[in-house]
Amino acid sequence: MISKCLIAAALLAALPAAAKVQVTGELQRWHRVTLTFDGPQTAEDGRPNPFRDYRLTVTFTHAASGKAYTVAGFYAADGNAAETSATAGNKWRAHFTPTAEGEWRFTASFRAGADVALDVTPAAGKPAAGDGEKGSFRVRASDKSGNDHRAHGLLEYTGAHHLRFAGSGKYFLKAGADSPENFLAYDEFDGTYDSDADSGSYKQVGPFIHKYGPHVADWRAGDPAWRGGKGKGIIGALNNLASQGVNSVYFLTYNLDGGDGRDTWPWTKPDLRDRFDSSKLDQWEIVFSHMDRLGMQLHVVTQETENDRALGGGAGLNPIRKLYLRELAARFSHHLALVWNLGEENNTPDPDRKEIARWIRAHDPYRHPTTVHTHNNRQLTFYNGLLGDPFFEATSIQGDMRNYNRDAIELRKRSAEAGRKWAIFGDEQPPANTGVVPDANDPAH
């Protein structure tokens, strides 16, 4: 095992003399602004580990109001990995969504040290190149309209039973199924395939990889793609869903270790848990940005019932789970409509759920709502230990559709009595092989 002293020495030796920062984006309110830093030259498999042993954070402050957001950064390989599939480079990146017009100022904190990414203490580790880098940019009003989330702003929890867009003030009524859970198991994402690394009852399940072939025809000129035209199937599928009024997509980001599909993960290999695939995650970002344009919420499900005690060797907030959730927040929390779901049919004890939710909130400056998915028809007892907690804002119910109205009324009442009104979301109904059939009765009746 490499000692912490040797890692620290290697980090100091690797630091370049100076760092530069590039500001890119449309520089409009509610639009993504990206800062890209020239930092240490390294690789996804480099030593020191660029994901554990460096920590980039950037604080953005609105000059007029003083409102500040501290954003987690990430290693970005060559800065164009979605197109190049690069695994090495000297680019480090932070995505930010400005919530107001006018001048924004930024200050970077870039620290180096063994496992510094797992430490939220500002002074942890040693300064790396770019630490203290400052700059500013000016933001104008958004030019978007229609369903595009950039016309409406950040979807927020405001203490009421419905989420509301901060820009337009409109309330959000979710319309979207929780299938397919492995939406991101798409054959044109880099490093995506059926893994045989698992053992257990699901090893014999057939390949679940998606091509979305019929939806290539739904891709439109001007829509995104990557690497010479890849991605048209999944982008077309989203176009089709949006045309039917769907405004939320529920998807897993990890289904290894006994999961249903063993085909969705953010890491470079299915047997690694602390090295992230820069090109795959950049391609996910292309898809998620298109969802913003279509007006579709990202319902991010971080694990499932079969593996919720597997990541890092336990159910709690261990170092591997910390690293995984930090990377997700760093790369994707800037999206305007996002819900963090701590797990499908989740078995994690309530004290661990609270600690995990607190860790996500520490790395998500936009305070996106957090929920956790129930086992079937257990919703009236499942949330008893979470109601009123400051880091939970919504349900994710699995249960018989005929009970949805009753359960929504009861859980609204209980959450209000606990002092924190929740948004009540019903996400799944049995049977699994059909879900909601086309002629089903409205679950509100």
Taking all Cα atoms into account, the compactness measure Rg is 21 Å
Secondary-structure class: alpha/beta
Helical region count? 8
Taken in chain order, the helices and strands follow as: HEEEEEHEEEEEEHEHEHEHEHEHE
Q: What's the story with the biggest beta sheet?
A: 5 strands, antiparallel
> How many individual β-strands?
17
Taking the alpha carbons of the first and last residues, their distance comes to 61 Å
The portion of residues forming beta strands comes to: 15-25%
Q: List segments where confidence is low: pLDDT < 50 over at least 5 consecutive residues.
A: 1-18, 201-206
Specify the helix fraction band.
Answer: 10-25%
| Basic shape | globular
Mean pLDDT: 92
Fold topology:
Elements: H1 4-14, E1 21-25, E2 33-43, E3 54-62, E4 68-72, E5 74-75, H2 81-84, E6 88-96, E7 102-112, E8 126-127, E9 134-139, E10 155-156, E11 164-165, H3 232-243, E12 248-252, H4 278-294, E13 297-301, H5 319-332, E14 338-341, H6 350-363, E15 370-371, H7 379-382, E16 397-398, H8 404-417, E17 426-428
Parallel strand pairs: 12-13, 13-14, 14-15, 16-17
Antiparallel strand pairs: 1-2, 2-6, 3-4, 3-7, 5-6, 7-8, 7-9, 10-11
Helix pairs in contact: 3-4, 5-6
